[in-house]
Amino acid sequence: MGDPVPRPAHAGRPGRDEPPEPAPPTAVAGRLAATVERLRDEVGRAQAAADGRALVDLAKGVLIARLGCGPVEASQQLHTLATEGGVTVLAFAAEIVNQASRDQLSDATRTFLAHAAADAPDAAAVLRIRTAEAGALAAGDTQAVAESLLHHAVAPLGAHAVAIWSAGPDGALTLAGYAGFSAEEARRWRYVPPGVPTTARAALTERGTVVSETLSGSGLPSIGARECPDGGRVVAPAGTGGRIVGVLEICWPDPLPTPPARIQRQVEALAELCAHTLDGTAEAPAAGGPAGLAELIDLVDGLDDPALVLLPHLEPGGRLADFRVAHANTRFVDPAGRPRGALTGTLLLEAYPVAAGVCGLFDLVERVYATGEAFRAERMTITALVDQVPLTGAAGISISRIAGAVLLTWRTDDESVRLARLLQHAQRLGRIGGFEEHLDTGEIAWNAPLFDLYGLALDAAPIPLARLTAHAHADDATAVQRFLRTVLHRHRTASTAFRLHRPDGIVRHIRVVAEPVRDTDDRVVGVRGAYQDISAQHWTEVALAATREQLAHTAQESAERNRLARQLQHAIMPPAQGPIDASGLRVGVRYRPAEKDHLVGGDWYDAVVLPSKQVLLCVGDVAGHGIDAATGMVVLRNALRGLATTGAGPAQLLTWLNLVAHHLTKQVTATVVCGLYDPDTATLRWARAGHLPPVLVSGGAARTLPQIPGILLGALAETTYAEDELVLGLDDTLLMYTDGLIERRGDSLETALRQLLDTAARPAADLDAHLDQLLTFTNADTDDDTCLIGIERR
């Protein structure tokens, strides 16, 4: 048995232009399981009915034995007593049997009645539905039906509004009736175009009841959203026999928890009632064959493509179970070789059982029949099983609902069609339009993309290649004329780029290429070629050129700023400076600038004898790089020199310097260690602002001074700093430095300081050698500025 199995070549939204994702194997198993469950339920109901009849017959037998009457009279007595007692005949029969026999039969009877009661609908619900049905039958239009549903059926459930939507074949929704909403709100929602996501469309798409605790929580708009955004919604598709003709939407004023199953069954029953009302203006059901089926068959027989006409096959309860093949046109060829007449009248899943499997063909047909929204796919992979051997091919699929039937057609692609389609897509993606001109007849042929490039309608007259200059920019006229001479007079292939003036005023950048067409006698009879829109490429090149120019200008500015910053640093702090002898101290300084200009930073040092004969010693590091860091360094260095002449101690100097950094600069932050050496007492008073503490080398050992508190400059508007003292012994050396001396990528600060102490403890010939040794053997690798001061007492 053959089985065409179309599979989508690409994923898409089902229902319009693209096939849905193939149904997973679990979906196939689910469909088969549902069929088995349906058959099991039917068997169970038949057994229950048989058990019920047996129970009634037992009760009749009891009455015949006790009353001595005949079977007919016993049956009449059973019905009369049940009616007078207000119970069902089955319940009364069970009571009679229960009284007559206290055995396992009575237990089975009670169990059977319990299951029957569980499946029975609520009496009040049945009454409401019947009352609403009566109102709907008496109503003249859908508006009256909506009002009847609200008044009789859903208001007792707490709902306050009802909307009945009519579903169009294109997926649009029209408000056919409403109750509980204002007239203004109904006017706003009288029509919902196809593709607009709403709560009603969600039920239409899922083909099932959708419950939202709150409308705002669902994230979907709907009628009454402005009036009651926090109310609950229950939306159910309105359909009969598998065909959805509308949607019933019921609104609650308050949040709605998940309603029990019996409430949802009531809503579905009301939705089916609405479907019968809406069906008055819809297509007639096709269960028994739609009106005009003969005309549809005649139409299908005239098609050039294979086609099947399918009619819905309904179960006794009205549920759609399958589709029956009503007709296969003359172009149809069964993959398994069966004649067309053998397929007529068979069920789709019987003829092609794999249609419910991976390909999802049955789901597509079912969706189109339910919603009326046609399905189109330009290219799908079809697999046919012939003697259990899979055969694959490509085809375009089309499924439509017509007059209550489903029309399934497909077109198999040959190699020429496939290549032509590839060429069309390539021209569309590349924005290429082709042309051909016959020189003898003057006939010109353009394809559709070329009309679009020129901004002309498809029915407009094509423009001859010889008139191209009239449509080009004046500045491009020379290049176009040279191109035309090469092609039309020299009969050689040529190309050129120009600006095309379109009738709508848009200017496009176009590249045209053309070649002569020769006949068998090598005589030029025409010209053919192509136009390509290169506007995007042109503007990209313009943008890139502008970007390159801007980058070059920025790089030049940056280099100039870095050069100025380095000159400023060298003017204030030369890279090398001889030792200074002052007040019993020998002071050596080293400054190593960054190797790269863009990394020029704000490291600085100072060593100067103040009027008080004290020696100011300091090292600092301004955050950042470039000219801003260098100018900030100059400000802080000069400010500290001026403040030091007041005679204040290091802690007070840093307090004032913090005010300068915070208020008198452009948000400069810096770290500093500052010391004042008194030659009379050989005492160094020092303070730090976020900087690394100095290192003392004494007696062949090196250690860091205490980590006294002090926040970096410029971080806070007002702060104070701590101060400490150190008495320098003879031949002691104190080292002040910036982090560029010790920082190393991947190493911790503790490791870097430990390496610095090991290097500082090494003996050296004099102070200059000691400083050079530190710069040489410290393994910093961040290429940052480095300042180093060595103070040695003599």
Automatic annotation (TrEMBL):
Entry-linked SMART domains: ANTAR, PAC, PP2C_SIG
Disordered: annotated span: 1-27
A Pfam family hit: PAS_3
GO molecular function annotations of the record: phosphatase activity; RNA binding
Annotated PAC domain residues: 494-546
ANTAR domain ranges (all copies): 36-97
PROSITE patterns documented for this protein: ANTAR, PAC
SUPFAM superfamilies xref list: GAF domain-like, PP2C-like, PYP-like sensor domain (PAS domain)
UniProt keyword list: Hydrolase
Coiled-coil blocks: none
Stored PANTHER family: STAGE II SPORULATION PROTEIN E, STAGE II SPORULATION PROTEIN E-RELATED
Protein name according to UniProt: Transcription antitermination regulator
Organism: Pilimelia terevasa
